[in-house]
């Protein structure tokens, strides 16, 4: 392999920076996690399902945080995470959700959340290195988990502080409210996914119309 910083470990091999979702044969099905929020920073809060009704933390099961980092394309292999690292991942998740929710509500951003996001983003991120033998681009970091969190935080900063901020939305399905980036030309998207919440909402509206137009006996 080509040179790199002493002690640095591979994060991932890719033509683009870390953060592109991947799915591994033999791992749990991709349905365990959702990577369709439109941005890496919004995929992390999606690990809490039904946040507004009956929250379910999909990172609560053993090994789930490590699997999420791998499937998000942030680390090269499944790495054992310490309890402190898992806690840090969840704290970053809630920080991003808090800030995005404030943006959606056009409310002031909580200073504590802003400070924490800035602090995580300031940590070292993976650096690109070219492997001489294979001419493969390899991203390396001395601490892959810390670098993964910094990568997520920097994506959140770019999203929250950039021109795409008005496109941050929450799913219109009351029991979902998953965050997503509205990339539609009209910026009128309402659902996290048409296949999921969109079809449910339309089906419910259709049944209600049928009920309203059915003569009472």
Task: Chart the SSEs and their pairings.
Layout: E1 9-13, H1 40-43, E2 48-49, E3 56-57, H2 64-71, H3 83-104, H4 111-121, E4 127-131, E5 136-141, H5 144-160, E6 168-170, E7 179-181, H6 194-213
Antiparallel strand pairs: 1-5, 2-3, 4-5, 6-7
Helix pairs in contact: 3-4, 3-5, 4-5
Taking the alpha carbons of the first and last residues, their distance comes to 78 Å
Helix content: 25-40%
Radius of gyration over all CA atoms, rounded: 20 Å
Poorly predicted runs are 1-5, 23-30
Provide the residue-averaged pLDDT.
85
CATH topology: Jann2411-like fold
Given helix and strand content, the structural type is alpha+beta
For the record, the CATH class is Mainly Alpha
Number of strands: 7
Q: In one word, what is the shape? A: globular
CATH architecture: Orthogonal Bundle
Largest sheet: 3 strands, antiparallel
Q: Specify the CATH homologous superfamily.
A: Jann2411-like domain
Order of helices and strands: EHEEHHHEEHEEH
Side by side, the strands of the main sheet go: 1-5-4
Q: Number of folding domains?
A: 1
Count of discrete alpha- or pi-helical segments spanning 4 or more residues: 6
Q: Provide the β-strand percentage band.
A: 5-15%
